[in-house]
Amino acid sequence: MKIGIVGLPNVGKSTLFNSITNAGAECANYPFCTIEPNIGVVPVPDERLDELTNMYHPEKTTHAIIEFVDIAGLVKGASKGEGLGNKFLSHIREVDAIAHVVRCFDDSNIVHVDGSIEPLRDVETINLELIFSDLEMVDKRLDSAKKRLKADKKAQSEIDVLEKIKETLDAGKCARTVELTDEELETIKDLYLLTLKPVLYIANVSEEQMADAQNDERVNKVKEFAKTENAKVIPLCVKIEEELSSLEGDDKKEMLEALGLDESGLDKVVKTSYDLLGLMSFLTAGEPEVRAWTIKKGTKAPQAAGKIHSDIERGFIRAEVVSFNELMEQGSMVACKEKGLIRSEGKEYIMQDGDIVLFRFNV
Questions:
Q1: Count of CB atoms within 10 A of residue 346's CB?
Q2: Radius of gyration of the chain measured on its C-alpha atoms
């Protein structure tokens, strides 16, 4: 699963990417420093794995992972090819969700492409370019569906959903604000609409703003806009996160405490991105390995088993399940068994986040 980091040039995208992945993407104070997208694979922070590791002392601990893609800065006119726009838009089309970085701080040493700091204008600039690109796709598909209508009456349902989306896009709103049924989403999934992708807004603030970022005027403007899309906003100081990402262990803990933070902003970004994609983790635990496995919310037990190995899904018999919290409360699997807390679940069982599972199978 991929999260694309987007925004105008010089808003902190590549610095954020470097901090998240420590991948060393080039970062400089001029537009279009990033042309080819940089990709970083990062572990999803999960304190449950730490506790299971302390319990089992495994040879290996494996976190769930998520990919972040650092996409070059978009500018006004990108949908018409400005600033290598078409290439950048194609990179966005390939990701599953968007992390939209919005600059909310003043700094005369860092150039802003529009000459001033206005977060909502910047958000609108990016969104409009994505909307224009989507409109082009929707118009082409509408023309095609209308031509097919005489020969194929089923095309009417496609026309209906396309016109619903077109009306929203024409109004300057993103497709994700349209209420669509599962059937309607299936009808248009091969369009890969940019504005249909779930979005997380990252409000990049200064070190001074960070102390009261939740009440910052510019951050609040982004929050008000995000409400219209049911999107989340995470305020963070990319500069601080860059410093934090270079620290480990006690040094990192001390800096977080000095800043009055429970966790880094980057950990919040990664966790929220994981949730944004509708993902969760089930866990397996033992001496060889403690591991988090990524599945979509709503996944049934056999399909979850298939994440480990296709043979386990094919020969699925049952899943022996205990929740992470119950295991921690009892202190051991033996204690959970004695109290009857380990459940035997069949093929229709819908997996829950934090389930610790042993799959029984026969092939």
A1: 12
A2: 23
CB 89 within 8 A of CB 133: yes
What is the length of the chain?
Answer: 363
Expressed in angstroms, the distance from the first to the final Cα of the chain is 30
**Alpha-carbon 255 to chain mean position:** 26
Cβ–Cβ < 8 Å for 202, 216: no
| DSSP 8-state secondary structure symbol assigned to residue 114 | T
Angle, vertex CA 119, rays to CA 115 and CA 120, nearest 5: 115
- Distant-in-sequence, close-in-space partners of 213: CB < 8 Å, separation ≥ 6: 203, 205, 219, 235, 236, 237
Residues 118-177 pLDDT 10s: 999 999 988 998 999 899 999 999 999 998 888 888 889 999 999 999 999 999 999 999
Tokens of 340: 């009857």
Q: Which two tokens stand for residue 263?
A: 């966790």
> Which residues lie closer than 8 Å to 242 by C-beta, 6 or more apart?
15, 18, 19
Could you read off the pLDDT of 267-288 as tens digits, one per residue? 888 889 998 899 999 999 999 9
In angstroms, the CA 229 to CA 130 distance is 15
Distances (CA, A) of 248 to 144, 162, 251, 276, 324: 56, 50, 6, 27, 27
Interatomic CA distance for residues 164 and 119, integer angstroms: 29
Residue type, 355: D
Contacts of 220 (CB under 8 A, 6+ apart): none
Six token digits for residue 22: 């420590």
**CA 36 – CA 120 distance, rounded (Å):** 27
Burial of 150 (0-12, 13-18, 19+ CB in 10 A): exposed
Reported pTM = 0.84
Cβ atoms of residues 219 and 213 within 8 Å: yes
- State both tokens at 148: 């097919």
CB 268 within 8 A of CB 44: no
